[in-house]
Design brief:
Elements: H1 5-22, E1 24-32, E2 43-46, E3 56-58, E4 60-61, E5 66-67, E6 70-74, E7 77-80, E8 89-95, E9 98-105, E10 113-115, E11 119-125, E12 132-138, E13 143-145, E14 151-156, E15 167-173, E16 184-189, E17 194-199, H2 213-217
Parallel strand pairs: 1-17, 3-7, 6-12
Antiparallel strand pairs: 1-14, 2-13, 2-15, 4-5, 7-10, 8-9, 8-11, 11-12, 15-16
């Protein structure tokens, strides 16, 4: 028995209507624990069935720092690490989500690094100990970063339905978490359109000091 084109079209329209009905925007505000100070650059995500598409990105080194300090990319993305300093760098990570080692180099590495597992990847430089950066690798498209007012809006198409118990789990990460190797979780009501969450953060790190002797050796190529 053949299914008519009208029946197929009707089914698609009903599916689209259900999807639209389930879609909504969730506004999340992140503040510092103990006061109402907004927390900028917190990465907020909701686990959903909407996978993110891999991208090509870069983290460059300039003035002996990683730019950006935090990069958020989907699983499967490739990241290049161009060196725009007049000193060499040695970029590495020991993080379980991605372990790699780009030995001492200038200009641009031979190939980008592919981040094929979700998680928090901490970056370092074997020549400049103060250098620190992060790659947040996510497996959901429902991910965003708070602005200077501590707010982020996630456009959610679908939410996990099994075992949700009427709540939605938010994952929040910030580089100054006491344990910044993993996000913290917060439960909010499933039908909430807005939420306020608080984070306990470490103080801002001290400013970089002058170059030590080892760094001076590699200042000029």
């Amino acid at each position: 028995m053949k299914v008519s084109a009208i029946a197929v079209l009707a089914g698609l329209l009903i599916s689209a209507m259900v999807s639209t009905a389930n879609a909504y925007e969730l506004s999340v505000t992140v503040t510092l624990e103990g006061n109402t100070e907004p927390v900028a650059n917190a990465v907020v995500s909701v686990d959903s069935a909407r996978p993110a598409t891999p991208v090509s990105a870069e983290i460059y080194q300039k003035d002996r720092a990683f730019h950006p300090h935090v990069l958020v990319v989907p699983v499967g993305s490739s990241v290049d690490f161009p060196n725009r300093d007049n000193t060499q760098h040695h970029v590495y990570s020991f993080s379980p989500a991605k372990t790699f080692n780009i030995e001492l180099y200038a200009d641009r590495p031979a190939a980008p690094i592919v981040f094929d597992k979700p998680g928090i990847v901490e970056l370092g430089c074997n020549i400049h100990d103060h250098m620190q950066g992060f790659v947040v690798v996510t497996d959901t498209a429902d991910t965003g970063r708070t602005d200077t007012s501590g707010k982020v809006t996630l456009s959610l198409d679908t939410l996990p339905s099994e075992g949700s118990q009427g709540t939605v789990t938010l994952e929040i990460w910030h580089p100054r978490l006491p344990d910044n190797t993993r996000p913290v979780t917060r439960e909010i009501e499933r039908d909430s359109e807005s939420a306020i969450v608080t984070l306990n953060l470490e103080p801002e790190p001290a400013a970089e000091g002058s170059l030590d002797r080892l760094q001076q050796r590699f200042r000029e190529l």
